[in-house]
Every structure is written in C-alpha cells, then in structure tokens.
Write a structure and sequence with these properties.
This protein is an alpha/beta fold. The longest helix is centred in the middle third of the chain and has 22 residues. The N terminus is likely disordered. The termini are far apart.
Length: 206
C-alpha cells in the first residue's frame, strides 16, 4: 500500500491556526498517511517556526491572533517559497484572491473535507518536488531587457533586485518569457500550472 506522501521520506507540514481542535484533527488525519505535522497557534510563532525549520508545505489560517494570515504570508515569502495553503471563510472570494495574489499557492474553505485537504496538499507538494527536480537539469537563462530568469536555479531578478516568487508565479513568468512578444491566453497559463484544481470561473491568475 502506498503512503499519502508519494515519497519514501515523510513530508513535513506546518499548520498555523489558533483552532486547537482543527489542528488536532489535521494532525490525527495526516500522521497515519506518512506526514510529519507541526502545529502552532499564533502568526508570530508560525513565522518563527518557518524561519528555523524547513517544511514541505504550510497550512495557514487567515484569521489569527496578533498578526493575521496575510502578514504571516508576506513575512514568510521574504525568505521562503514553501507551498502555502490558505484557510479562508466559506465562500469568501475576496480572501481567496487576496491570498493568491500575495503568494499563496492554493486555498481551502475553513469547512474543508479531509479528502480535499489531502488532494490539495498532494498537489502543491508534488508540484514543488517537480520544480526541485527540474532545477537540477541544465536550462538556458532568459534575458528580457532588465528581467533575468534562471530556470535551473529557479531564480529571477529585475536589474539588481532579486525577485521572490512562489513556484506558481515562477512557472507563469517562465511561460510568459518563452512566449515573449506573443499573446498568452489564460488557458495556456492555467495549463502551465500542473496539478492545480481550478474552478471553472477561477480569476485568481488575472
């Protein structure tokens, strides 16, 4: 029987949520599937933990005591491109779009099912592993005016400034660079982002 992580090593997950019951349920559900789950309950603790420990994914609640989930996301993105799943209020499109625009990789409504949690967690961690393996392969750099992209190292810079991008943002930027001077449709961009479960009317990449 295969484990839920699709890998020989347990994937390390950080859950940042002040709902103690939810944290316990997520840990009890994911641990038997081969995940190593760490839980913290404030935004500041979440940032501190993510800074000192390497995780394969972070599950981050928007509503947190002290600094909220958006500020946690902003701070984590300053030093890490770890896949981040945002937990948002049911049906709150504004929360979802705000999180995705700030660098989140996906979102879940706060009333998520365990099956949906596992599916989305597998998708973002699988994409991250694919990106990491691709980075080991030699690939030509892109130079478009002041923009410089290094697909092998998955680094981007504009002039002298290093760009901090999520895996999804970097993939989309590579797609656009490869098609420089040509129009790229939303559908083409969506197809470049493997394993992402988009809704029919998803406008997040706009």
């Amino acid at each position: 029987m295969s484990h839920g992580t699709d890998t020989d090593q347990p994937l390390k997950i950080l859950v940042i949520d002040d709902d103690l019951k939810l944290c316990r349920l997520v840990k009890e559900y994911l641990t038997p599937l081969g995940y190593e789950v760490t839980t913290v309950h404030t935004g500041s603790d979440g940032v501190a933990t993510a800074r000192v420990t390497s995780f394969d994914a972070i599950i981050l609640d928007v509503m947190l005591p002290g600094i909220n989930g958006y500020e946690v996301l902003r701070q984590v993105r300053q030093f890490s491109t770890v896949p981040i799943l945002m937990l948002t209020a049911l049906g709150d499109e504004a929360d979802r779009i705000a999180g995705l625009e700030m660098g989140a990789d996906d979102y879940l409504p706060k009333t998520f099912s365990t099956r949906e949690l596992l599916a989305r967690l597998r998708a973002v961690t699988r994409r991250s592993r694919i990106n990491s393996s691709t980075a080991a392969e030699p690939t030509d750099e892109f130079h478009i005016q002041d923009l410089r992209l290094d697909p092998a190292a998955r680094k981007a810079s504009l002039g002298e400034q290093r760009l901090i991008l999520t895996p999804v943002e970097f993939d989309m930027l590579i797609c656009l660079a490869r098609s420089a001077g040509r129009v790229v449709s939303r559908e083409q961009l969506l197809n470049e982002i493997a394993d992402r479960n988009y809704e029919v009317f998803d406008r997040s990449i706009d």
